[in-house]
Amino acid sequence: xxxxxxxxxxxxxxxxxxxxxxxxxxxxxxxxxxxxxxxxxxxxxxxxxxxxxxxxxxxxxxxxxxxxxxxxxxxxxxxxxxxxxxxxxxxxxxxxxxxxxxxxxxxxxxxxxxxxxxxxxxxxxxxxxxxxxxxxxxxxxxxxxxxxxxxxxxxxxxxxxxxxxxxxxxxxxxxxxxxxxxxxxxxxxxxxxxxxxxxxxxxxxxxxxxxxxxxxxxxxxxxxxxxxxxxxxxxxxxxxxxxxxxxxxxxxxxxxxxxxxxxxxxxxxxxxxxxxxxxxxxxxxxxxxxxxxxxxxxxxxxxxxxxxxxxxxxxxxxxxxxxxxxxxxxxxxxxxxxxxxxxxxxxxxxxxxxxxxxxxxxxxxxxxxxxxxxxxxxxxxxxxxxxxxxxxxxxxxxxxxxxxxxxxxxxx
Length: 412
Description:
This protein is of the alpha+beta class. Helices cover 31% and strands 24% of the residues.
């Protein structure tokens, strides 16, 4: 019996997926669980495995096609078996015969421009507008009747609404000098999602910020002391980020409200300490997760961080790599940034922004001295934590950075 290959939903609120490449050709034999194709979601490029043993047949979507979640994109059949002749109703997901599908799509042309204006135009396209595109059109005031869809069967996607909104803004007045230089750039799914989530977080989460300057001398010494043992045992270089991640995770054990989540009308204390680590990729930022970081040895953290970074750069992150974070660290020290503030990733309650380590003149016992200093800024959701809790957390972060061995031990 033929088995359908459908566009999977790999994350919450995913509406579509984009086919990047097929790892098998039509007619190739495949085994269940074998990588079949690569798709791009809002977060990353991921492999989709074959759902059955058999032969790949009836491929309906080539590279670059953006397909609605749940739609059949190919079939796995037995040798000599025919591909079923059927289509998927875009609205209900019911599988219909070809005549039924034609009838179902034809009966949607309701009303006329004179009778219903924009409403009639939208109704005639009702089954071909993604929910995300509809929301975006309402926010931007874009007339859906004027938008041409680029999705399957002419479906209007969020990117089409973005392009229409940008075009309308550009035509509102007289052409400006160098107008050709202002052509809107189409964002990748990762960049679009980052833009949407940061904007929503900034609008809906009551941020406040607490900043401290810390002496990083002991942190440098810990890296020099423990780093060689980690590299010898695990074959990976121990970075300042690895040390910070381990220390912050252990401090969070004492401060559960910084590791909590806002649950709509209450605070949820998370049972695990899973640190999301912000990483720059070509077209945005992703935040893969180090799970149970408070229990992990430095060598394990360094290995996980390297693996996640490599796969993030190669767009090979899996859904599990991005799920379950309870606190985020964003380190821009390697870019020579002194200090910055970061936007919280809901439903997390806090994010720690870390600047570079640089020599500065500071007062020690009334005398001027040059010390390696770093600035950290904690962003907190005021519904979950208050200023006193944030200050106490940073106080313990400072203590941990000032004496790493007492918090970590020296095990590699």
